[in-house]
Every structure is written in C-alpha cells, then in structure tokens.
Amino acid sequence: MALLAVVALLVSVLTFCEADCPDGFSKHGGSCYKAVRIKATWAESDVYCHSAGADLATIETAEEQHYLEGHLSAIAGAFDPARFWFGGNDFAEEGTWVWAKSKIQIVEYTNWRYNAVTPIDKDENCLELSQGYDWQWNDNDCDDRYFFVCEKDAYIDGGEIIG
Asked: Is residue 109 situated within a structural domain?
C-alpha cells in the first residue's frame, strides 16, 4: 500500500512539473529565451528584460551556446542586422567579465571571438553575439543599439518557478 502511494505521488509530481514558457519565449533546459525585436542600448535592454520578469541571457555551457546559435540562426532573417546583447559585462574591472544576473565572473565557459581568453578593448564593456561573427562572443560599446535576448526560468503550469 505504501509503495502504491509513493508511485502515485511520483506520477503526479512528474505530470505537474512539466516546465513551460510564456508566449514568445522558447524553452531549452530549465530556461526560456526570447529574442526581442527592439533595438536598444545594453542598459535599456537590461531594463526591458527585467520588466518582462527576465534578465539579459547568460551562456554558461557549450550546450547552451549551441542551442542559442541554432535558435538565433533560424530567426536571423527577422533581425537586421542580426546582433544581440547578452548579459555579460566588464563594468567593474576592465577584462573581468561577469554575468549581470548573478554577478558571477565568466570563467567556466567562454566563446570569445578569435579564441581570446578575454577581449581587451577598453571602450567596449558589453557582450554581444552576432551572425557576422558566427555567433562568437564579442565586446562592444554599450551605447550601441542592438536587438537582445532575455532569459527567464521555465515554470510549471501553475506559475511556480523551477530550475
């Protein structure tokens, strides 16, 4: 009888814990992503994402990079030019890149253009990806206006956050 109760609980948890994303967001893993068709500065992009309950997207693994490359490549025709702000910056210390959402230094996974360890352009402090650079990371002037990608945690149908 106890085993039956455990199985029933497990089935109900698995049934109701299917993560989903709000309209306009696409799901990968435990995250939802949205490429926004508004050109904005990095700071404006960050504010916009926060207003949608999200953050500028982070890329923490090669798998996530691969997914985003494929997703952005598939929709690139709707964005001219296909350049997107992401959540990395080196505002606090030149050359020390952190994710805006977590303030965690970007060291585990990177995909800088030209296989650089970190870019060294002192006037460019914000992270962008563009089709023109084969979706590799590039630092750019934060006041330039590009499209951007927001990321939020996937949620359960009832609105509960998971992940």
From this structure: yes
pLDDT the model gives residue 138: 95
At residue 98, φ and ψ (nearest 5 deg) are -130, 160
148, 85 Cβ separation under 8 angstroms: yes
Cβ(22)–Cβ(54) below 8 Å: no
Cα–Cα distance, 101 to 149 (Å, whole number):
13
E strand or H helix that includes residue 49: helix 42-51
CATH number at 68 reads: 3.10.100.10
pTM: 0.84
Q: Give φ, ψ of 43 to 5 degrees.
A: -65, -45
pLDDT at 157: 56
In 3D space, the residue among 159, 154, 153 whose CA is nearest the CA of residue 19 turns out to be 154
Please tell me the distance from the alpha carbon of residue 29 to that of residue 117, in angstroms, as a whole number.
Answer: 27
Angle at 64 between CA 147 and CA 71, to 5 degrees: 50
**Residue 101 within any structural domain of the chain:** yes
Residue 14 maps to a domain: no
Average pLDDT, consecutive stretches of 10 residues, N- to C-terminus, the chain (163 residues) = 40 49 95 98 98 97 98 97 97 94 93 81 91 96 98 75 52
